Structures are given as C-alpha cells and as structure tokens.
Automatic annotation (TrEMBL):
SMART domains: POLIIIAc. SUPFAM superfamilies: PHP domain-like. Coiled coil: none annotated. It comes from Butyrivibrio proteoclasticus. GO terms for molecular function: 5'-3' DNA exonuclease activity; 5'-3' RNA exonuclease activity. Pfam families: PHP. CDD domains: PHP_HisPPase_AMP. It comes from the Bacteria. Residues 4-71 form the Polymerase/histidinol phosphatase N-terminal domain. This is Polymerase/histidinol phosphatase N-terminal domain-containing protein.
Length: 284
C-alpha cells in the first residue's frame, strides 16, 4: 500500500516549494495522493490540478485549504478536503476573509515602521512574495533579508509573536465558520493537529463535540509531531465520535526543515485506504 499526505503547503501561503515542485516531490516520494492545503487561500489549486493531471496519472490530487481560526483566544486550524474552490459563495466569503487579512497586515506594517522604527510596507511584502497569502513567516524572511534581525526566531520573539507589542491579531473566524465554508464548497472538514492546541483531554473532547454539531467530519489522527500515545488518543477520540481519520505531514519545505513530505520526521505513514471513507463523506 502506498502512502498519502493530506496536509501540505506551497509558496502560495507559507511553504517554500512552488506548486509544481510540491507535486514533483510527491511523485518522487511515491505518494498515491496529495492534498494542497494552503492557509486561507486556494490560489494554487488550479495549477496543481492541471499539472498533476497532465504529468502524473498515478497521483490523485485533492483540492484543499487550511483555515486559521480562533477558539477562546487561541489558534485552531480546520482543514477542508475535496473542496469545490470555484463555488461562487465560497469564493465571495473567502475574499472577504482575505480583505480583512490585508487590513491587518497593513496595520502591522505601520506599527513596525512607526513604532519599532523598522520600515516595512505591505506593498514591499507583496513584491517580495508575489501570489502568496502573506503570513508572519513572510515578515520574518523579509526582516531578516533587510538586516533588521539576526534570525527568523527573533522576529517572533521580539516583534510579531502572539504577545509582542507590534503584533496585530487577525479578525476572528471561528472553527464553526470554517466548517460552514468547507461544507458550502462540498468539502470534508477535518480538525487539524489537535494535540498542538495543548488542551486538557476534557477541553479537547468538548471542542470536538461542539464542532461535530457544526458539521465536523474528521480529525487528524496521524501527524508529524505525534508520539504513539498521542496518535492513540486521537484515534480513540475519532472512534468514540465516529469521526473520519485523516493525516498529514504539514510539510512547509525549508520553513519546517525537519518535516518531510509524506513521512514527517521519518516514521509517519498515512495509508491510502483512509481516502475511501473521506471521499464517501462528501455526499453526506
């Protein structure tokens, strides 16, 4: 049985591989399927669909997205698989989300320029990273290139980390909002990497129950950073609430250097047979 990867990023958000490089690498890794799940954008999906279809008949490409949402003041991510990214209402609402993200970035640039004395503009970010959804990883790269800092980590520690003076929170989109959008696009909503939220078992289970009521279909039980006990915990949670099992490396290329496509830190394996149930969930 071949492996798959249902959580990856390209340079259309905060990954470093182009869409074509990512698909080529999936073929090199002998993956049976790959989902592109860039943060809050579907910019790369048409290129990926066309390129995969033309070049690799042995790879299934799955159009996806990863929504960055806020739950009780903390980040919670929701992946959508098999989305119809051309759905008109989905596109309209995604654009509204993108507009609020742009306003937030413009404000953060002003704070860095006027308050921190580090001149940086939103136009400069767009020029440096064309066709990408601008994230804090892009700020870090540009600020390092401009000689403002000695490392990317310094950007987050001193300037735009969650609790730093120059950080501007994004407009809140809730996990329920993301689930609604994914369902609107005919996709399958998956709770991404739940272990990373560092919730108590009780809080995590309460979140899962709440999101099931909103239409959640699955959960990432296989993920790069999970220890065996953590994977068992999420699998048990999935079984308890009849959730689909999903999995992904969260591959970002050079931005997460130790995480490799399809295998995470080296031992992760996501079997292709989990796709059958995920595909069937699209019709429900």
């Amino acid at each position: 049985m071949r492996g798959i990867d249902l959580h990856t990023h390209s340079n259309c958000s905060d990954g470093t591989y182009s869409v074509k490089e990512l698909i080529d690498y999936a073929h090199e890794k002998n993956l049976a399927a790959i989902a592109l799940t860039d943060h809050d954008t579907v910019i790369g999906l048409d290129e990926a669909i066309g390129y995969t279809g033309k070049k690799y008949s042995d790879i299934e490409f799955i159009p996806g997205i990863e929504f960055s949402t806020v739950n009780e003041g903390k980040d919670v991510h929701v992946v959508g698989l098999y989305i119809d990214h051309h759905n008109k209402e989905f596109k309209r609402r995604l654009q509204a989300f993108a507009d609020s993200r742009r306003e937030r970035n413009e404000k953060m640039c002003r704070k860095l320029t006027e308050e921190a004395g580090l001149p940086i503009s939103y136009d400069e970010l767009l020029e440096a990273f064309p066709n990408a959804v601008i994230t804090r990883a892009h700020y870090a790269k540009l600020m390092l290139d401009k000689g403002y800092v000695n490392s990317r980590q310094e950007v987050f520690d001193k300037y735009i980390g969650d609790h730093c003076k120059y950080y501007v929170p994004r407009e809140n989109i809730t996990p329920e909002d993301a689930i609604e959008l994914i369902l609107l696009a005919g996709g399958v909503p998956i709770l991404a990497h739940p272990i990373l939220y560092h919730m108590s078992d009780e809080k995590l289970e309460a979140l899962v129950v709440r999101l099931i009521n909103a239409g959640l279909k699955g959960i990432e039980a296989i993920y790069s950073t999970y220890e065996p006990a953590e994977e068992r915990q999420i699998r048990n949670l999935a079984q308890k609430y009849d959730l689909l099992i999903s999995g992904g490396s969260d591959f970002h290329g050079a931005n997460k250097q130790k995480i490799d496509l399809g295998v995470g830190f080296g031992k992760m394996f996501i079997p292709e047979d989990i796709l059958t149930d995920i595909k069937n969930a699209r019709a429900n």
